Amino acid sequence: xxxxxxxxxxxxxxxxxxxxxxxxxxxxxxxxxxxxxxxxxxxxxxxxxxxxxxxxxxxxxxxxxxxxxxxxxxxxxxxxxxxxxxxxxxxxxxxxxxxxxxxxxxxxxxxxxxxxxxxxxxxxxxxxxxxxxxxxxxxxxxxxxxxxxxxxxxxxxxxxxxxxxxx
Length: 167
Description:
The structure is a single chain. Helix content is 37%, strand content 19%. The chain is α+β, with helices and mostly antiparallel strands. The protein has a 6-stranded antiparallel sheet with strand order 1-6-5-4-2-3. A hairpin with a 3-residue loop joins strand 5 (113-118) and strand 6 (122-128).
């Protein structure tokens, strides 16, 4: 059975009029994708607030300090996982994902990355067609504008596993 086509969507905070738009789009995604999600993790070391963030700066800075304090208390750095069934954990993750050096949302069995934010400047969604349709439907029903380039993005079939890699 061939793999479902996947659409790549750029999601850096700088592409939105306000960073909070990017946060809202990620929050909706996490709600819609919840039944399909596996690990939702981030690197708790060296987090910092994105310059684009306007609202909730003090609250998010407090979250960053709490998470970094937890990590130091454990004696070694480990990824921090978030429970997407918990509404507060989803809110926390959305803000911290863009503050982290690396944040990832995996599918079940971790075979597919659905979202990744890296280094405070890169963020990308990789959405299979069925998940993209559900996500775009949820955004529309909530009254959010879908970025034009997302609507124009073309889905591509992934290369077979034996053709992926460095050669």
